[in-house]
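Recap from last week: sequence in, structure out.
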Amino acid sequence: MAASTDPDVRLLQALADPIRLTIVRELAGQPEVCACDFTSCCDVSQPTISHHLKVLREADVIEGERRGTWIFYRLRPEAAARLARIAALIEAGAGTAQAPTRLPVLPVLPAR
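Predicted C-alpha cells:
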C-alpha cells in the first residue's frame, strides 16, 4: 500500500495498531510520558516501542522533547482536534445513512 499524503488517513493508519492506540491513550490522560514508561504499559520491548513512537511522530500524532538521555512524549493538540473532527463527521453521517437497495431476486434459469 502506498503511503498517503492525506493527514487524516495517516492519523487513522497510525492509530490502527493496538500498541500505538495504547500509547495514544496513555498520552491522552497525561501531559507527557517518558518513552521508557511505554514498555511496561504496552508489555513490549524498548525497540518495539521506539518503532511505534516513530510511526506516531511521522504521522504528526505525537511530539517528543529530549531531556538528557530521556525523551518525553506528548499528544499533539492538532492530532486530537483532527481525530475529534473525524469522529464528529462519522457520527453526523451515521444517522443519515440509508440502507442499501437490495437487488431483485432473479428467476432460476433452466439448465442447458
